[in-house]
């Protein structure tokens, strides 16, 4: 009998590599035996893309899911009933900080600090945050995509920040870390130091974690609620 899919929607290829390594670590061996993991690598942030709004985002995700089911990967004619759940992983990117803390900086892209975002064009960052925060809040009211259970989890300020403590890594460093992460995940106990570390991992409920990350400057802090997805699926995550 074909295993049911758990479908992860991620923003980029490095996120896919790192989450795959987590899922194939010894902690989740029994879970891996039960389900087949598949990924949609969007290669962009659907929660901040220009043209996306809180009014059309659910339709955009429906389209993403339909395109994946019709793509023939991993095989043709995937039905919604073949999918156990859809797990959407996003970076917070400081989306909820006060707009007064978005400042001019001579930087080539948004630059994240503990309590502010620097941008060469601050108005663009303000617009991005306004769009992204509204879309995230909308997605928190969505429980199904095309009849399949849907949930959204955050990495704050981003994946590299959660796993390696760095908000603004160079692309080469990001790529190198993603390539080495499967070894780290299997051999060094990095999950206990990050995803399951009480200083980083959400300790309350799913709803409480999302309320907390929207407070003050926490969406620039080093936090995640992805541990809540794993929950009791993990074997001895201490």
Distance between the termini: 33 Å
The DSSP helix count reads 9
Give a quick account of the main beta sheet: strands, pairing sense, barrel closure.
6 strands, mixed
Q: What class do helices, strands and sheet pairing give? A: alpha/beta
Strand portion? 15-25%
Low-confidence spans: none
Write down the overall mean pLDDT: 93
Q: Give me the Rg, rounded.
A: 18 Å
The count of strands amounts to: 9
Number of domains: 1
Q: Shape, please?
A: globular
Order of helices and strands: EHHEHEEEEHEEHHHHEH
Helix content: 25-40%
Plain-language structure description:
By secondary structure, this protein is α/β, with parallel strands linked by helices. Helices cover about 35% and strands about 20% of the residues. It has helices spanning about 15-25, 30-35, 55-70, 120-140, 160-165, 170-185, 190-195, 205-215, 225-230; strands at about 5-10, 35-40, 85-90, 100-105, 110, 115-120, 145, 150-155, 225. Strands 1, 2, 3, 7, 8 and 9 form a 6-stranded mixed sheet that branches. A 3-stranded mixed sheet has the order 4-6-5, with helices on one face. It is globular. About 35% of the residues are buried.
């Amino acid at each position: 009998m074909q295993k049911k899919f758990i479908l992860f929607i991620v923003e980029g290829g490095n996120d896919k590599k790192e989450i795959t390594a987590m899922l194939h670590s010894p902690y989740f061996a029994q879970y891996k035996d039960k389900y087949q993991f598949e990924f949609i690598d969007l290669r962009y942030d659907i929660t901040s893309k220009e043209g996306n709004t809180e009014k059309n985002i659910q339709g955009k995700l429906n389209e993403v899911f339909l395109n994946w089911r019709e793509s023939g990967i991993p095989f043709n004619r995937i039905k919604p009933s073949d999918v156990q759940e859809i797990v959407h992983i996003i970076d917070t990117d400081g989306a909820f900080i006060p707009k007064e803390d978005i400042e001019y900086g001579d930087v080539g892209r948004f630059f994240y600090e503990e309590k502010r975002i620097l941008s060469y064009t601050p108005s663009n960052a303000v617009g991005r945050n306004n769009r992204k925060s509204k879309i995230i809040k909308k997605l928190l009211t969505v429980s199904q995509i095309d009849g399949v259970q849907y949930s959204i989890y955050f990495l704050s300020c981003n994946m590299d920040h959660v796993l390696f403590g760095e908000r603004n890594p160079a692309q080469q460093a990001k790529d190198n870390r993603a390539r080495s992460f499967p070894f780290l995940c299997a051999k060094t106990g990095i999950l206990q130091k990050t995803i399951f570390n009480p200083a980083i991992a959400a300790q309350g409920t799913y709803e409480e974690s999302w309320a907390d990350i929207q407070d003050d400057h926490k969406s620039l802090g080093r936090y995640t609620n992805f541990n809540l997805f794993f929950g009791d699926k993990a074997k001895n995550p201490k």
